Amino acid sequence: MGIPAILKRRMYSLSGTYNRCWRCGVRVFILGCGRVGARAAAALSPTHRVTIMDSREASFDRLPASFSGSTFVGNGIDEDDLRAANVGDADAFIAVTNGDNRNLMSAQIARELGVRQVIARVYDPVRCQIFAESGVTTISPTVTGAQALFDLVVAEDRGD
Fold first, then answer.
1. pLDDT band at 9 (very low <50, low <70, confident <90, very high)
2. pTM, entire model
3. How many CA atoms lie within 13 A of 66 on its CB side?
4. Which spans in the chain are helix H?
5. Contacts with 94 (C-beta within 8 Å, 6 or more apart), sequence order
């Protein structure tokens, strides 16, 4: 059994090999340099102006040598730190720390500072509605993972 096409497309778009961008020069600010944040930063940096912030400088070791963006050590829920990192100049803000509350708070600050597109990772699906009400786009690994498992089982049942 192979990987279903829909999952291949999702993996390909995050693989770092799909770097064509119709909006080159877009300024992207990423909060959280864990596995997801580092991978997103690496994938976006060839075609976007990426800044990534984390509270621990050692986290930036996850970034590949090819990363062409900038790094900033700071607290993502401290408005002064976000201002110092010029979050308000970003076109997009992505919060991918390990905490839903931290992601929500930083996303709300980014919104207040004028960032047009604000995206946050939310582990708890119940909290997705709270984020949506504040104008934050969410992605939930819990929901996405469950849906991917469902899709795999259904595809296998159909013989895809």
1. very low
2. 0.81
3. 11
4. 5-13, 35-44, 79-84, 100-112, 127-133, 141-158
5. 28, 29, 30, 31, 37, 40, 119, 120
CB 58, CB 80: distance < 8 Å: no
User: DSSP secondary-structure letter at 99?
Assistant: -
Residue of 41, 73, 39, 40 lying closest to 56 (CA atoms) = 73
| 34 Cβ neighbours under 8 A, 6+ residues apart | 54, 59, 62, 96, 97, 98
Among the CATH numbers 1.10.560.10, 1.10.357.10, 3.20.20.70, 3.40.50.720, which is that of 23-158? 3.40.50.720
157 phi, psi to nearest 5 deg: -60, -35
* Three-state secondary structure call for residue 61: helix
